[in-house]
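Run log // design_07
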């Protein structure tokens, strides 16, 4: 985040920007939208240092709660989504913190990869729209833009949209309006995709200035609901983030349907990071359910991180498994309990007490997650990380 603050000093987000705003050349980081994309991803990826630097898988083992035992590194109860092979809890957790891990169809696996995927079209707005207001947002009203080869190149270089060349000559419509409640967001941007790409709408809510960057993205279509909320407090150097994907809003979770739920907190000034996750699949023969809370100091030398997990991939499917794990190797330092809070560790959260997960899952069918309440922000801290309800409409 020090890089973030330095870049803000050089290029104020409240100005049109540092680069050419001619859309024929691609706007690069010329808008508040592009800058917001870059800074949020940079802040989120700081916490990935919780992942072990080396990972290994081995032979079959049996978990005895609350201990992982030797099976932390040698069990094969988890599925490696990269190739559908069996893998250990240690390897699986490393994949969960790897921004570059992908499935066979090139879709991202980890929360950090999904965050980038959720925001890359948002980033594309920043390099494609050239009619910007004084704050660097697309001007209020309706705009259309056609993707040129230069814009496509900017989308590849600045937004990591590898397939951008396929979008050349595609026309997009952007509608920008001031938000009704400006507590957390300044504008709402609705992007309509070309008919060839499904013609669906994607909504983005944005504030990007010298003290905070807040971004919300929502897409609800035949492929399901995807929502991302990212609140980056530049003054206090704190990131709060929620991501969810699942069946279209208002529908019952049907057999074989999957839900992903993530929450992230990182206080860079105090180097305190926490991550909570749920991966759930409804199955008539028995639901697949893995939930966990990670907590640690990703930028501290010699750090350990606390892990609390319940998973149907473990032999004891209903009990909490906990460990204090050496961040540099991924090896267990203390088995059966989380780390003791210290200058190099956080105690973390008992995942069985993380009521935010259970409330989300039980209320998914009847709760509106396909809209953003403009006056609601993310306010959780380390003290209520597991209990603060996920934000609704």
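design_07 sequence
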């Amino acid at each position: 985040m020090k890089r973030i603050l330095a870049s803000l000093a050089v290029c104020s987000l409240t100005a049109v920007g540092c680069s050419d705003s001619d859309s024929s050349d691609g706007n690069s980081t010329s808008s508040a939208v592009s800058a917001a994309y870059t800074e949020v991803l940079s802040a989120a990826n700081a916490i990935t240092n919780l992942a072990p630097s080396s990972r290994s898988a081995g032979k079959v083992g049996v978990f005895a709660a609350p201990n992982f035992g030797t099976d932390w590194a040698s069990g094969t109860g988890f599925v490696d989504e990269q190739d559908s092979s069996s893998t250990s809890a240690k390897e699986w957790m490393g994949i969960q913190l790897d921004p570059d891990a992908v499935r066979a169809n090139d879709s991202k696996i980890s929360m950090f990869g999904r965050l980038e995927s959720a925001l890359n079209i948002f980033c594309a707005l920043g390099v494609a729209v050239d009619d910007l207001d004084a704050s660097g947002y697309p001007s209020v009203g309706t705009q259309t833009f056609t993707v040129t080869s230069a814009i496509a190149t900017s989308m590849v270089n600045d937004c990591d949209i590898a397939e951008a060349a396929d979008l050349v000559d595609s026309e997009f419509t952007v509608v920008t309006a001031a938000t009704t409640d400006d507590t957390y967001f300044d504008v709402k941007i609705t992007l309509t995709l070309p008919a060839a790409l499904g013609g669906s709408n994607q909504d983005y809510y944005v504030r990007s200035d010298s003290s905070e960057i807040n971004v919300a993205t929502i897409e609800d279509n035949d492929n399901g609901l995807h929502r991302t909320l990212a609140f980056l407090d530049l003054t206090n150097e704190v990131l709060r983030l929620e991501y969810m994907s699942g069946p279209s809003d208002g529908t019952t979770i049907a057999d074989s349907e999957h839900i992903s739920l993530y929450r992230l907190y990182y206080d860079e000034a105090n180097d305190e990071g926490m991550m909570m996750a749920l991966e759930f699949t409804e199955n008539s023969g028995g639901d697949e359910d893995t939930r966990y809370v990670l907590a640690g100091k990703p930028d501290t030398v010699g750090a350990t991180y606390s892990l609390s997990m319940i998973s149907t991939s473990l032999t004891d499917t209903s009990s909490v498994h906990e460990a204090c794990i050496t961040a540099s190797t991924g090896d267990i330092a203390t088995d059966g309990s989380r780390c003791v809070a210290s200058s190099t560790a956080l105690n973390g959260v008992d995942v069985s007490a993380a009521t935010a997960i259970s409330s989300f899952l039980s209320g998914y069918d009847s709760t509106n997650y396909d809209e953003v309440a403009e006056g609601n922000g993310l306010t959780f801290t380390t003290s209520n990380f597991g209990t603060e309800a996920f934000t609704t409409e």
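The radius of gyration is 21 Å.
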